[in-house]
Specification:
Keywords: Endonuclease, Hydrolase, Metal-binding, Nuclease, tRNA processing, Zinc. This protein is an alpha/beta fold and 758 residues long.
C-alpha cells in the first residue's frame, strides 16, 4: 500500500531517490514492482530510483525481469558493492563488517549484514531440498552481477536466499564546537579569514603574538553528529548473531550512560523486528547497550491497527455503509477493546531491563525523528494524521446531505423476508433466474477488493475479486498490489488470515502488474499460516509468464504453490483432459477439478480475450442442486472479463450468466482511447451483458481519472451496478443491485455535477 499511502498524504514519488531494503521477502518488497513501473511511466522519459539491499536481491531482480522491462528497473544493487569500511575491515568475519553505501559529506550510510547464527559449511541445503542453496538463473547483466556478489558472499558458508537481514547505520557529520571570538582576539588573531580557518579545523598564526593558534584554543570540542540505526531482526537465530557483532561495538554505551572509548552515541533506533523477538529478555539486553537512545518500535503496533491508514477511502466506505449497509460493510474502525482480544497483537512489555532514561515509543504513520538542526533533535508527531471516527464521518454526511437518511431507509425497505432474502419489488421486467430460487446468504458472496485500473489510487486499489463460498472455501480472481491489505480492511486481521487459509485457488487474468503483483505476498502468508498443518500447495492458474515469475521468486521465499497455465483451463483443454487425462503430467488439472468439486463448482473455464498476449476472462459454473421438495435447480454462473475490448468469445461464454463482472475502464466519450489501450467503455460493457443475456452486470476496473465515481449514463443501468472497493455482493442480493445505483449519485453530488457539465 505504499503508493496509496503516498498519494493520500500528497508525498510525491519524486521526493524519494533511494530505497534500502532490510530483507528480501514479500513483506518488505511487495510494493516494489508496482512502484518501479509507476516511476517508469512518469514524465516523457520516466524516472528511476536507487534500490539497495542484501545480495540475495538478485533473485527478486530475476523474477521481476519476467514482466518488468530493464529500462524500468532503476539502479538496483546490493550493500556489498562498495566493499567493507576500513574501520571494520580487520574483522575476522565477512558478516561482521561495516559496508559503506553513501559518504558524501552530508550523510554517511553504512550497512551490516546479519545472517542467522550457526551457518553450516558450504554445500548444505534447505531441508528437503534437492537444489543448491545458490540457484543459478540466466538473466540480465544487472541480475548476474548481483548473483556474483551473492555467490562470493556464500562461497564458504551455506546461506539460503531470504535468510539475510541488514542493519542500516545513518551518521551525520560531526557537530563543530562553539567558536569564541574573544579567545581568538586574546591570542592575537584578528577578525577575518583566519576565524573561518579556525572554525574549519585548521591552525593559524597569530597576528600579534609569535604563536600558532589551534582550533582547540578557541573552540569547544566537536561532538559526533546524530546517529540512527534501523534494525530488522526477524528471528531469535538472527538475534544471537546481532548480539555478537563486533562492528556495532563503537555504537554501544554503558548502562550508566557513560560512553566507552571511541563510542559514538546513537540517538535513535528504529526496530522493524517482530514481537516474537523484541519481547525476549535477550533483545531487551541488546537494546540496553545503547544507553539513552530513543527506541521506536515500528512493527505492527496495536495503535496503528486501531487507526485506518487510508483515511480517504475509509471515509468513502463509511458513507457508502450509511447509505446501504447490505452491500457496503462498515470500515474497520478498531477499538482498543477489540484489539486486546486479538491473540496475534501483543504490546511491547514495559518491565524492561533498560536504563530509566531509555525511551520507548510506538511508531505512528508520519512520525518523524529530527536529526538537524541539532536543537530540534528528537521526535516530532506534528504530522501524524488525526484520528477519525465513524460518528464524525456520519455527522458530516447527514449535515451536508440530509436526504441521505430517507434514502437509506428506502433502500433498507427493499430487503424483505427471512435471512435477508431479496424480493424483486421494482424489477418486474427482469424475471428472477431459476438458479437463484431458494438461494441463501451462506451460498456465495463476491467481495471487490480492488476496482481501479493501472495503479493504486487514493480511493481505489488495483484489481482483485474475492469469491467467498463460506464453509466451502474461497477463490481469488486477480491479485493486484495491496490485495492482502484490502482483505484485512474487509475481514479484520484475524479474518484475513482465515480467508487466506481457506483459498482453494488463485486465478490471474493476465501478466500486467496491476492484476498479479500481490500474489507472492498472499502465497507466502498462506505458507506461514499453514506451517506445521497438513495441507497441499495452492493452485495458481494464470498465464505462462506468471509461472516464470513465481518459479523464480520461490527460490527466494517458499510459496507452496502449484501452477496451472490458463491455456490448460480453456473449454477445449478441459474436453481434451476429459477424453485423455494422460495429458495431465503433474496432476495439477486433476487437483483443480477435485478442488472445484469440493467448492461446489462444476467448471472453471478460461476464455481468451482481447487485451494483451495470453489475456483471459473466466467462467465459473456452479453445480446444480436439489431443493427440499426434490426439484432440480440449475447452478448459477459467474463471469469475469479481466481486461478486454468487447469480445465475442467472452459474450458467447457469458450466455445466460447470473452475473457478468465486466471491465469498464473508460467513459463512453473516450472510445478512441479505449480502443488504443484494448479496454472497454461503460456502454460497451453494458452492451456485452445485454448481448449475453446476463441477469446482472457489475462494472469495475475504472480509470483512476475517476477517483470516486465514474461517469455513467443512468438510462442503461437497468440491470447493472458500479463496483466500489470492499463492496460485498451476496448472491441473494443480485436482484436489488440496479435499484441502488440512483442513490449512489446522491453520495457524490460534486463529482456528478462536474461529470454532467462535461
Amino acid at each position: 500500500g505504499l503508493q496509496r499511502f503516498l498519494t493520500e498524504h500528497k508525498i510525491t514519488l519524486s521526493q524519494i531517490d533511494h530505497i534500502f531494503l532490510s530483507r528480501v521477502c514479500s513483506e518488505t518488497v511487495g510494493g516494489l514492482p508496482g512502484l518501479l513501473l509507476t516511476l517508469a511511466g512518469m514524465g516523457k522519459e520516466g524516472m528511476s530510483i536507487n534500490v539497495s539491499g542484501p545480495p540475495d536481491l538478485y533473485l527478486l531482480v530475476k523474477a521481476m525481469e519476467s514482466f518488468i522491462p530493464n529500462s524500468a528497473m532503476g539502479q538496483i544493487d546490493s550493500v556489498l558493492r562498495n566493499g567493507s569500511d576500513e574501520v571494520a575491515s580487520a574483522s575476522s568475519s565477512k558478516f561482521d563488517c561495516l559496508f559503506a553505501l553513501i559518504t558524501d559529506g552530508v550523510v554517511k550510510l553504512s550497512a551490516v549484514l546479519v545472517p542467522p547464527c550457526c551457518l553450516k559449511v558450504c554445500g548444505s541445503m534447505k531441508e528437503g531440498s534437492s537444489e543448491p542453496n545458490t540457484p543459478l538463473i540466466s538473466g540480465s547483466h544487472l541480475a548476474e552481477d548481483l548473483q556474483a556478489q551473492w555467490m562470493n558472499l556464500t562461497a564458504e558458508v551455506a546461506l539460503n536466499p531470504g535468510e539475510l537481514s541488514v542493519v542500516y547505520i545513518c551518521e551525520l557529520p560531526e557537530i563543530k564546537g562553539k567558536f569564541y571570538p574573544d579567545k581568538a582576539a586574546a591570542l592575537g588573531v584578528e577578525p577575518g579569514p583566519k576565524y573561518g580557518q579556525l572554525q574549519r579545523g585548521n591552525s593559524v598564526e597569530s597576528d600579534h603574538q609569535n604563536i600558532i593558534v589551534h582550533p582547540c584554543d578557541v573552540m569547544e570540542p566537536s561532538t559526533h553528529g546524530p546517529i540512527v540505526l534501523l534494525v530488522d531482526c526477524p528471528t531469535p537465530s538472527h538475534l544471537q548473531e546481532l548480539s555478537s557483532l563486533q562492528s556495532l561495538t563503537p555504537f554501544y554505551s554503558n548502562i550508566s550512560g557513560e560512553p566507552v572509548e571511541l563510542c559514538k552515541k546513537v540517538n535513535c533506533l528504529i526496530h522493524l523486528s517482530p514481537a516474537s523477538v523484541t519481547n525476549t529478555p535477550a533483545y531487551e539486553q541488546w537494546m540496553a547497550r545503547f544507553g539513552e537512545a530513543q527506541h521506536i518500535m515500528a512493527r505492527h503496533e496495536p495503535k496503528n491497527i486501531e487507526i485506518p491508514i487510508l483515511k480517504s477511502s475509509s471515509r468513502i466506505a463509511a458513507r457508502l455503509n450509511c447509505l446501504c449497509p447490505q452491500l457496503f460493510p462498515s470500515p474497520g474502525f478498531w477499538s482498543l477493546q477489540q484489539l486486546k482480544s486479538l491473540p496475534s497483537v501483543s504490546k511491547f512489555p514495559r518491565e524492561l531491563s533498560l536504563p530509566t532514561s531509555c525511551q520507548i515509543t510506538y511508531a505512528e504513520n508520519l512520525l518523524k525523528f529530527h536529526l538537524l538542526p541539532y536543537k530540534e533533535l528528537g521526535l516530532d508527531n506534528s504530522n501524524v494524521p488525526a484520528t477519525i471516527s465513524r460518528t464524525e464521518i456520519l455527522n458530516e454526511l447527514t449535515s451536508n446531505i440530509p436526504e441521505i437518511i430517507s434514502a437509506s431507509e428506502h433502500i433498507s425497505q427493499l430487503w424483505h423476508g427471512n435471512n435477508g432474502i431479496v424480493e424483486e419489488l421494482q424489477l418486474h421486467e427482469t424475471p428472477l433466474p431459476s438458479c437463484l430460487e431458494g438461494i441463501t446468504r451462506e451460498d456465495m458472496e463476491i467481495v471487490f477488493l480492488g476496482t481501479g485500473s493501472s495503479q493504486p489510487s487514493k480511493y481505489r486499489n488495483v484489481s482483485s475479486i474475492f469469491i467467498n463460498l463460506f464453509l466451502k472455501g474461497s477463490i481469488l480472481l486477480d491479485c493486484g498490489e495491496g490485495t492482502l491489505g484490502q482483505l484485512k480492511r474487509r475481514f479484520g486481521v484475524e479474518g484475513a488470515d482465515e480467508a487466506v487459509k481457506g483459498l482453494k485457488c488463485i486465478w490471474i487474468s493476465h501478466i500486467h502488474a496491476d492484476h498479479h503483483a500481490g500474489v507472492a505476498r498472499i502465497l507466502a502468508l498462506r505458507h506461514d499460516l499453514l506451517s506445521g498443518t497438513p495441507h497441499e500447495p495452492l493452485i495458481v492458474v494464470g498465464p505462462r509468464q506468471l509461472e516464470i515469475f513465481l518459479d523464480r521468486y520461490q527460490m527466494l521465499e517458499e510459496l507452496d504453490m502449484q501452477f496451472l497455465d490458463c491455456r490448460d483451463t480453456t473449454e477445449s483443454s478441459w474436453e481434451a483432459f476429459e477424453s485423455n487425462d494422460d495429458n495431465d503430467a503433474n496432476g495439477s488439472t486433476s487437483r483443480l477439478k477435485n478442488l472445484l468439486r469440493q467448492a461446489g463448482l462444476m467448471t472453471l473455464i478460461s476464455v481468451p480475450v482481447i487485451h494483451c498476449p495470453q489475456a483471459n476472462g473466466i467462467v465459473l459454473k456452479f453445480a446444480d442442486r436439489t431443493n427440499v421438495i426434490g426439484k432440480r435447480i440449475p447452478g448459477w454462473k459467474i463471469v469475469y472479463s479481466g481486461d478486454t475490448r468487447p469480445c465475442p468469445e467472452l459474450v458467447k461464454a457469458s450466455r445466460e450468466a447470473t452475473l457478468l463482472i465486466h471491465e469498464a475502464t473508460f467513459e463512453d466519450g473516450m472510445l478512441e482511447e479505449a480502443i488504443a489501450k484494448n479496454h472497454s467503455t461503460m456502454g460497451e460493457a453494458i452492451e456485452a451483458g445485454d448481448a449475453a443475456g446476463a441477469y446482472r452486470v457489475i462494472l469495475t476496473h475504472f480509470s483512476q481519472r475517476y477517483p470516486k465515481i465514474p461517469v455513467f449514463d443512468g438510462t442503461y443501468m437497468h440491470k447493472a451496478c458500479i463496483a466500489f472497493d470492499l463492496m460485498s455482493v451476496n448472491l441473494a442480493d443480485l436482484p436489488i443491485l440496479p435499484s441502488v445505483v440512483p442513490y449512489l449519485k446522491l453520495l457524490f453530488p460534486d463529482e456528478m455535477s462536474i461529470n454532467e457539465a462535461n
